[in-house]
Every structure is written in C-alpha cells, then in structure tokens.
User: Fold these one by one.
Assistant:
Number 1:
Amino acid sequence: MSRLLIKLIGLFLLFLGLYFFGQDIIFASGYYSYFYSKIPATGSVLAIMAGVISLIFFRRVTGNLGWIFLGIGIVLVFLSGGVILRPTSLWNFLVAFTALAAGYKLLTEGRINF
C-alpha cells in the first residue's frame, strides 16, 4: 500500500476515535449570579486563547509557554463546571481508544505491530 493511503487511513481512524470520545462530552455555559463565580470560565477562555495564539504566531519567542497556557485553560474549564462528562459504555470506550491509538500509530510509523 502506498504511504499516502496509510496516512489517510490513520487520519480517518484518528478522527473517528475523537468523534467517539467527543459524543460523551458536553460543553455548557450558564448564568452566574455573582461576579466571582464566572472567573474560572473567563480565565479558561483567555488562557486557551493566549496558548493558541502563542503557539501559532510566536512559537520561537514563547517556547513552551503556549502549552502551559493551554494546560491552565483546560484545568480552568473543568473547574468552572462547563464540561459535563456523560457516562459511556466500555464498548464505546474500547472502540474510541482503539481507533485513536491505531490512527496515531499509522500516522507516525505507517504500520501497526500486533
């Protein structure tokens, strides 16, 4: 098989795994009655924006600072309560994780060793 076809299959499996994982994640927003209760939500948006901008536009200048901002943003999203994780079956988790791992392995190495 050609390397391009293997990479396309890997990319398809990677997106399929992300799709199955993403079905059980709900992002929600709500109205907050006090100003201090929305600080984690606002901080998460600002940290994720700063991380993405520094990784895309200022990679050489900021170094790993963009990854740190992204990590802080993800933690603040969970602290704000804006992410709801629905229960999933073991079968769905197995399919999603297998597709994700196989797709990544095909993209990076071009083969899967059993």
Note: Residues 30-83 form one domain.
Number 2:
Amino acid sequence: MEACTGRTGRRPGTSTTRTEIVSAAARAFSARGYEATSMRQVAANAGVDPALVRRFFGGKEQLFSAVVTAAFQPERAVVTLLDGPRGSLGERLAGYVLGLLGAVDQPGPVLGLVRSAATSAHAAALIRKFLANGLLGEVTGKLGVDRPELRAGLAASQLVGLVITRYAVRVDALAASGADELIAWVAPTLQRYLTGPAP
C-alpha cells in the first residue's frame, strides 16, 4: 500500500509514478495541445503533487520530450528498423509509424503529439529535433549514407504528412486504405530518401 504525502493526500513518487505521469501528460497534450497543457493539470490527472512532476521532469518542455520518447520508443525503433535487409528499410519504417498510430478511428497518442506540433512552434521544434535529429537521424547516421541529415528530414516530412492527411485531415482515400496498401505505396519513397542515390 502506498504511503500518503500528508496534507495533499496525493501519492509520492513510486516505481510506476513516472510512467503514470507520462501517460497523463500524453492524454493532456493530445486533448488540449502543447500550449494549453499545464504541469498542474498533468499532476492533477496523474493524482500527484505538481512538485513531484517538476522534480521528475523539470519543466513542460522536458515532460513533452518524455511523452514523445515514450510514444516513439526510439531505442527499440532504431534496432527494429536496422534489423533486416537494407533494401526493405522504407517498408519497415512505414510499418513502424502506421503501427504506432493504429486504427484511423482510434489513433494512438502519436497523433496528438503531431497535432501539438502543428499548433505550437515550441512543440514543433521538439518533434523536429526528435524525429530528424534523433530517431531518423540515428538511423541514417548508422547507414553510412551521404547527406544523412537531409535524408532524415525528407523521411520525416513524408511520415508527418502521411500522419496528418490520414489521421487528422482524414483524406477519404487514405483513411479508407489498409495499412499494408499504404505501406506498399509509401515505402519506395522512404527507401529512396534513406538509401537512394542523391539527385
């Protein structure tokens, strides 16, 4: 049984509290966007004292970064993407991102994060840094290709565009298509960006 914090009656930090705060933050960022989400709201949703959220994460920027990391799972993603034939990397990347989003009518928290980036310059900078410089940047860096930063950025542009048009805007043809069909269409473009010869 967890101990009580005294006056507030809220839970102290436990082995699962950090994960619960990140989950609460993901829901808040998805529902309200980056700018409208406060550390106090996240703490209330997680049932902890705001001071604990600040102790774990520092500020909202670090909390948002933790949510992005939890959603994309970059360490697992890099291993998954690089584990297989180089010629099917685009297919694995498209499949990984569509797998994170899930069904069109019930998308995962990644959509909320991308929406936050669309409405907040600060959130956009964090997502951009994570995708282009972090996850995809690490993949292109390990491939040993020329212009790895540009290739990572181009791949990110393709993926973010797909996420927005299928899950947020819900363009009919994209929303109605199955994941396997979309992967087959998008994978060759991603593959060209990641490993194809420079123009």
Note: The chain has eleven helices and no strands.
Number 3:
Amino acid sequence: MNAAAAGSLRDRVRGEVLLPGDAGFAARCAGFQTAYGHRPSVLVGAAGPEDVVSAVAHAAAHDLPVAVQATGHGLSVATDGGMLIDTAGLSAVTIDARARTARIGAGTRFAAIVDAAARYGLAPLNGSSPSVGAVGYVLGGGLGLMAREFGYAADRVTSIDIVTADARLQRVTADSDPELFWALRGAGANFGVITGMEIDLVQVSRLYGGELVFDLARTPSLLADYLSWTETLPEELTSSVSLLNYPDLPLFPATLRGRYAAHVRIAYTGDSRTGERLVAPLRALGPRLADTVAEMPYTECGAIYNDPPMPHAYQGDNVLLRAFGPEEAAEVTESVGPGSAFPCVVDVRHLGGALGRAPEVPNAVGHRDARYLLRVLMPLMGARPEEAPGIRGKVLGALAAESTGGRFQSLVYGGCANGAPEKPAEDFWEPADHQRLAALKGIRDPANLFRFNRNIRPVG
C-alpha cells in the first residue's frame, strides 16, 4: 500500500494504521502461533467497531483481502499481502446476571469472562486455555470443558455483531437474519469481521476436576482402558487423555523427564463424592505420577490442562471418530511412543452427550454423531514445519477407516488443525452444509474478501 492510501485510511480510523517497517508493525502481526505469521500490506488496530467498518470499506475499494486476528491462537491461514485487522483492543465484557448472558468484544479472552461471570455464580463454555480469544473459539464450534453436558459453545450464541463485505455493521440474530446466523456459528470468519457477540452462560461455580498422570511404561493399555471407561460416564463428566513422550530435558518436571506419560483430564459438574466414585476405576489402573483431581472453584479451571501460556511454534491436525477400539488404541500408543521419530502430543477427547444433539437454533457445526475427537499436536521446537507430516499421517492413518469423513471445525483453541497443510473446505463441514455455506458466501461475499481462513469459495 502506498503512503497516500495509508494516509487516507489513517484519516478514517481512531486506531493504528501500520505499514511494513513501521514501529510496532511486527509486534502487532505476531500471535500465539509462532511457526506461521501474517505478512499483510497494511495493519489496522481497531479501536472500535467504526474502525472495522472503515477498514473493510477501504479494503473492498482497493481489492485487499482481509484477515482478522485477536490473539493468534487459531491461526490456520496466514496473510500474504492484503489487510490484517487486529481486534485485540475490543475486549469489553458485560454480564447480565438475570438473563445469564455475557456481551463480549471481539478481542476478549476467556479469562476475563470466567472472572466476570464467577461473581454471579455463572460460567462461559470455555475451552482448556483461558488465554484463548473467545469469539474465534466460539464461532469455530467451541469444544469446552463442560461440552458433554452443555454442548458446543456455538450452540449458546444469541447475537453477533459483524461488519460484512459491504462495510455494514449489523447485529445478527436468529430472528433478524436466520440464514447468516446459522452460518456464522460454525463458519464465522468467512462472512465478515466480528466485533462482538452475546453468549449464554451456565450456572456453574465449581467443578470436581483436574488430571491423573500415568507412566505408560507401567500402564501400557491406559488409552484402551480410558476408552472403555468413557462408555460408563454421565453427561456431566467431560474428559480427555493426552499421550506425550517427554524428552529428558530440564525444562520439564523431574517426575516427567524421559517418560512416556498419559494425562487424563476431568471436569465434572456434579458433587465431589459422586465424582470420586466415577474416577475410582481410573485410579485403580495403577500408580500415578500426579493426581490433582479435586474440588475447585470454576475460576481455577485453567489448571485442569495447564496449557502453555507462552507463544510457541506448533502444527496440528485431527479426525473425528465414530468408533475407537483397543486395537486402534494400541497402534496409536505405539506410534507416538519412545520410538517415534518426531515428538508430538496425541489428544483424545470424549464427545457424545449434548454434543450429539442438534441445538434449539440450528447452526453449521456438524458431524455430531462422532464419539471421539483425536488430534495430533506437534510442538516444532526448532524443527521445520515440513518435517512434521509423516508422524501426523501415521497416527491419523491408523484411524482412517473409523473416520466420520470430515475434520473437526473447532480449530482456534489448542491447535486442532493450526498450521496443518491446507485442506479443502469440504473437509470441515458436512457436504450439504458446505453447499449451503458456499451459496450464502456467493451472496454475502462474492469477491471472497474474507479468504484468509478455512475458506469457503463463493458460488454464483
């Protein structure tokens, strides 16, 4: 972008307009994902929704494709030119305790919502990391700590503020624009720049939660045993298990260095006595390297996963499964164990319950018949991204026969497909839903202005 065009844009926005080489440009482009980064021709740091309107109008007039970033946790397709709109400054949170809702800005992180809602005995449907931006997470689906009881976070959205490709700010609800409201909850980044939304909260103030950590050298069938255990659980208990072969390095706790460990994470909204009874079969599997499962206030829910808070380089992919048997569990366990050529984390999340039911107001989150989500997350730790696909393909290939036929769309928390090689959009939605989304894209964004995402190509 030339200086004259940048000057014209600066005259129209209250926030920052930065070009490559300007002080602060690189820092504003950087996000939580450090293996990939945006390289826009211009960056707009929005100070309010009106700045987003002006930025989109300028981008459309100058044929600049638009990307959006608040925290950068969910970066999947980086810009190469075009405009980057930074919404991190739109971070207001307003709780309506009587209605049990929260109105949030586009840059709001879940930690702020958790703290604000806790004052009224309420909680959002957040994921494992409180530092994740709420809007991108929710509109991508949102598979949270209490998902089996309350469903996807996208199911609990009541209104969305969006600047569409025609540079118009509007509040979208199920009544005002049912087709766009359906599409935004599951494919939101394709249809505009979200400036805020309203979400339902749930009446939860505490959990029986934490993690059990096992040494797989002593409990080699842990993954198969975990899968069997999940078949007995009520919907109020949401859980997952992660397998990680720890290098013998000082940066890891002494109890984990050089071990192949399994972390079973638990969040149960029922009483602690019942929770102890439900978790007892896991504790009976063998000695544990750690056991933090206990009563906790919901404000401490981030301790269940203890996701790394610092930006880092990673690559991820995943597959949804209708079935996951002991033979597949053994193959996955061996694939990423001590003999693996590339360090990675395998994470299995138990689905079902409310996740398997359509919401009262339908949305674009599909594949609800899946019983498990298996993801492979590769911390690159100095390795080049192109070195990772082999082990990812080996793990996911072991389960290809059981796949639901699509990839899970909640890509912004925990790196479910962040940085993975580009896949066609058809992998992320059910076929009929993708056709419906493409038709709507052809109406609302025929020039594909919003294409730095898991992009749905416009039809028509």
Note: The domain at 3-86 is CATH 3.30.43.10 (Uridine Diphospho-n-acetylenolpyruvylglucosamine Reductase; domain 2).
